[in-house]
Amino acid sequence: MITVARVSLNFKKIVINSFIYFGICFSSYVYATDYTISNGTTQTSRVTLTNNDTLTVDSGGEIDYTWPAVDADNRTFPAGTTTITNNGIIEGNCCVIDIRSSTNPKLINNGTINGKSSSRTIYANNSVNATIINNGDITILGSSNYETIDGDSSSGLTITNNSGATISSEGDDAIDIENASNVTITNAGTISAGDDWGIQADYADGLTINNSGTISAVDDYAIYLRNADNVSITNSGTITSAEDPINMQSSTGTVSITNSGTISQTGGGYNDGLTLQDNATFTNTGTLSASRYAIGGSSSGVTIVNKGTITGGTYDFYVPSMTITTLTNGQGGIDALVYRGKMPTNYKLFVASTSSYGKFAKEWGTSGTTTFSIDTASTLAANTYTDIFTNTTSARFAGGLTGTCVCSNGVFTWTLSDSNSDNKWDLAIAADTTKPTTTFSPVNGATSVAVASDITLTFNEAVRLTNDSALDDSNVDALITLKENNSSGSDISFDATINNGKTVITINPSSNFSSEQVVYVAIGATVEDASNNAINAANTSFTAVDTSAPTMAITSSTVTDGDTSDDSALSMTFTSSEATTDFVVGDITVTGGSLSSFASTSSTIYTATFTPTDDGATTIDVASSKFTDATGNNNVAATQFNWTYESQLPSPLDKTDVTSSVEASKDIAAEWADMIVDISYNRIAWLGRNQGSIRTSHQGIRLRFQDEMIDILMNSSPNSQIYDEIYFANKMSNAIENTNGSLLAVSDHIKSDAATIAINEGVKLRALAIETLNPTFEPIFGDWSIWTKGELIIGKTKASSTTSKQDTKSKILSLGFDKPLDNEGIVGFVFDVGRDNTDIGSGATNVKSKNYSLSNYSALKLDSNTKIETVVGISRINFDMTRTDGSETLLGERRGNQLFLSNILRHEYKKKQFEISPYLTHSATLTNLDAFSESSGSLALTFNKQEIRDYEIGMGMDINSEIILKNSGRLKPFTRIEYNKSNSKTSTSMFYTSEGASNTYVKNFDIKNNNWKLRVGIDHIARSGWRSSASYTRKQAVGANSESKYSNSFTLRSDLRF
Predict the structure, then answer these.
(1) What is the pLDDT of residue 797?
(2) 461, 430, 478: which is closest to 535 by C-alpha?
(3) Most buried residue, 140, 145, 344, 505, by most Cβ within 10 Å?
């Protein structure tokens, strides 16, 4: 009974039918897209793969076909990735897997691929970027003339033979890559050939072999590199063969061999370990051995570094026709390097310790000369190293026999000598007394250093801390000083590291340096070499590159930014913050005009003339990235310069702050006269409410003193118990202690009786001498009384279409004298001082004034119930004007004189404690303002003289009453209600100072308002003699045609007699 598989294909769809039959086994080719040979199945026909096909042979599966078992259709794979994965067995008689001329094929072998007879196991010649990964066995059986893997003329072939895997041939080469290019072979398993070569790379160009396993040939060469070029071999495993392990006959280009494992020739006879060709490099820390010569050949430009063992049965080196440029040798002890041939041009001695160092044993037939030196990786000590050279005459040394080595553990001077004249040369090393040198990067004085730069300190030899402990990343920071500017500057945060060789400290600042920052770095004498030679303290300074973007300031000597003027042209200046050479007129953008006469006066200052094309706004700009500084930083955009050209300046009458300041001056003058009149009338009213009283003086303003004791003495009455005794004792003590006299301290126990007596006596003396500074109630001389008063008025005017809003604060202090007349009348005089402050608009425009007035007031009875009250006076008003127009702040001072007159005719009705007094009122004010000019500016104005006429006529009513309080005195409420019509007429004229009076602007004001006034208050007279008064006054314009303005004033006074 036989089990077979029959495969039918329908457009790459595979259908497998199994059946059992007796008779003949039928086989056919299989064309597969994705094909699997499963466990227990034996495929006895060829599997043909095309683009991106996959073939998987499962463990227990098998393909067994004569040749090839796996093939490409027409033996060509298109560009793609076709993958063969074998976990079972693939075998045949010839070309078991044929991937010739294919692109990107991939073979992964985890099982066995076996060539059973005369031909190749894997046929990969002319392939492109083929990959072979072997984890199992790839073999060819029998002594045939074909290879296990044939990659002739391939390109980009990669072969990986992993640990435990085998690529072997019982006949020809294990791997043949003749004429191939860019091949990589990585071996951790076994590559072996029973005949010929393990790896045959004749004429290969670009070959990399990394071996950690075994590469061997029983008969010929392990690696054959005849005529090969650009070869790199790294061996940490074993390369062994009967003949030369690595043969480089006629190799060209670069051949580099690095050996830390074993390279051995085991077949005896006239065979060598390495036959080196031109420009070859051999670095050995492992073992190289051969039955005749370990190293031989005819070549030039060879470099050999031997810190392992090189052993030849006859000679270690047989190089009569080889030119070795440099031979570094650390092989010595009882196994000196046996050398015959041309002396190396340079011989470097490697010293590992006082007992392990290189020895050179020259044999007869040696020619040429060498220059001796010590490998800088050596570790030296003050010592004599014997038999450095044997059988060597002085004629073989081309260079000097003394020198200095900057070695891994210090700087040492050496002497090579044949002290016994027996051609045996000893090396004497003197103790290291040379301090390590320190080299900074960046160097001292360096400029334009990158802001992200690290700083390095490089020592010419390894260093440690001066306490002999190791230097590492944990302690190196403490050795470094990194500051701004100099040794006294601010610290710069950093982290420092040191390399494994202990020769380079790298300083990594925590943040980038700032533009043009000066950096100071230093190290003290804190590290030393292995011979205890401490470095000299060293420092350096450098400057970081300029990374700041230059700026450009745009100014004009004609106007300032934001101005409006009628200048026909502007002189412009462009000032760069840094020197520049590429700023041109084309970098400037203008609107509303043009530039001419562009020129540079220095590397930072440029000038030009700007000419407007028409009335209106103009701009002058320098955009960003238009020019650069010396280090190439692009500029930032300049602040735009703005100017408005008006061939004729705009009318100032269209500027609300101009008309508002004129109106504010007018209002201040009118309100000042109105306040003076009201204060006089209020005094008359107060006297009317207090008829029959002899206390006609009052202290509306009290003189107070900062020193408490003086204030007590000046404002107290005799025999008054003003403060309690303990309070007085403490106050007197503090007063004396704080006096600038000679007393340093006083007792805290001043007797209360003494304190009271002292205070009372002082008050008596003051009362006898000057009476009081704060007169209260009674007339002060004859019938004349004196009174004072202070008042604060807050006003507001809303904005209109032609004026800005106004906020006004007024303060007034009054000092008055009056006396009664025989007919129950009164006459008096009052001197007033005031301050006004009016903010206009946002407050940038402001009108302030200092006001002074002297007036006469009187009240005369016409009959028993009718009287006439009159106020007449003069004033001086000094204005300080501040006006903002665009970017200009304009200042001016103006003076004014004033004459005012007011009359009230009233009739009084009294009934018990109630009094009502209707009245008619009329007032007139004439104010003359001087001419003045605002401070210089293109928009400064000159104002001509101005006359202001204010009239007012109205009617009102005073209502007074009296309330008797039980045991606490009397209350006298009072109210005034008034309605009036006012008319203010003036004409103001002005002109731009720059234009002259020929172009004068005139504005007429004829302001008519309907106003009401309300005043409410209360007087309190206590039985003890204490008097107080409080009042509130509101004035407001009303009506559709009136201004939207109002004011509030507050009055509070109190008097106490002791």
Answers:
(1) 74
(2) 461
(3) 140
Contact by Cβ (8 Å): 1054, 1027: yes
| Residue-wise pLDDT tens digits, 944-981 | 999 999 999 999 999 999 888 877 778 889 999 999 99
Give CA–CA dist 174/909, Å, rounded: 144
Q: Report residue 870: phi and psi, to 5°.
A: -135, 140
587 vs 607: CA distance, rounded Å? 13
Beta-sheet pairing, 293-296 with 272-275: parallel
**Token pair of 1011 as six digits:** 């106003």
Instruction: Look up residue 888 and give its two tokens.
Output: 């200009």
pLDDT greater at residue 77 or residue 590: 590
How many CA atoms, within 13 angstroms, populate the side-chain half-sphere of residue 1046?
9
The residues, any chain, with a CB within 8 Å of residue 373's CB and separated by 6 or more, are: 346, 347, 348, 349, 399, 403, 405
CA dist 763 and 778 (Å) reads: 19
Task: Give Cα 605 distance to the centre of its chain.
Answer: 30
Task: Give 318-348 pLDDT, tens digit per residue.
Answer: 999 999 999 999 998 788 999 999 999 999 9
* DSSP secondary structure of 566-626: --S-EEEEEEESS--S---GGGEEEESEEEEEEEESSSSEEEEEEEESSSEEEEEEE-TTS
The confidence score (pLDDT) of residue 141 equals 80
Using CA atoms, how far residue 502 sits from 405, 443, 469, 507, in Å, is 17, 20, 12, 14
Q: pLDDT: is 162 or 244 the higher one?
A: 162
Task: Dump strand ranges (E) for 841-887.
Answer: 845-861, 866-885
Q: Report the distance separating Cα 626 and Cα 638, nearest Å.
A: 10
Can you give the pLDDT at residue 1033?
A: 86
Question: Is the pLDDT at 1 greater than 50, yes or no?
Answer: no
Measured N-to-C along each axis, helices 708-715 and 752-770 cross at an angle, to the nearest 10 degrees, of 60
For the stretch 326-333, contacts whose Cβ atoms lie closer than 8 Å and that sit 24 or more positions apart, written own/partner, are 328/304, 328/375, 329/358, 329/359, 329/360, 330/306, 330/356, 330/357, 330/358, 330/375, 331/306, 331/307, 331/358, 331/359, 332/356, 332/357, 332/358, 332/359, 332/387, 333/359
Q: Rg of the chain's alpha carbons, rounded to an integer?
A: 58
User: Among 132-136, 740-744, 983-987, where is mean pLDDT lowest?
Assistant: 740-744
- Write out the two tokens for 823: 């007919």
**CA–CA distance from 517 to each of 109, 484, 541 (Å)?**
63, 7, 10
- Give the separation between CA 2 and CA 39, rounded to whole angstroms: 16
Q: At what angle do helices 752-770 and 725-737 cross, to 10 degrees?
A: 80
Question: Is the bond leading into 775 cis (omega within 30 degrees of zero)?
Answer: no
Beta carbons of 367 and 344 less than 8 angstroms apart: no
Q: Is 687 helix (H, G, I), strand (E, B) or coil?
A: helix
Q: Is 888 exposed, middle or buried (0-12, 13-18, 19+ CB in 10 A)?
A: buried
Residue 226: the pLDDT is 87
Lateral strand order in the sheet of 504-509: 438-441, 455-459, 504-509, 494-498
| DSSP 8-state code for residue 1050 | E
Say yes or no to pLDDT of 722 above 80. Answer: no
CA dist 809 and 709 (Å) reads: 35
Token pair 């004129």 in the structure block, residue: 662
Beta strand 13-21 with 2-10 is antiparallel
Q: Report how far residue 887's alpha carbon sits from residue 890's, in angstroms, rounded to the nearest whole number.
A: 10
What whole-number distance in Å separates Cα of residue 604 and Cα of residue 552? Answer: 9
% residues pLDDT > 90 (the chain)? 57
- Closest to 251 measured CA to CA, from 285, 272, 279, 273: 279
pLDDT digits (tens, 9 = 90+) for 500-539: 999 999 999 999 999 999 999 999 999 999 889 999 999 9
* Rounded Cα distance, 626 and 8, in Å: 76
How far CA 239 is from CA of 223, 229, 311, 331, in Å, comes to 8, 20, 15, 21
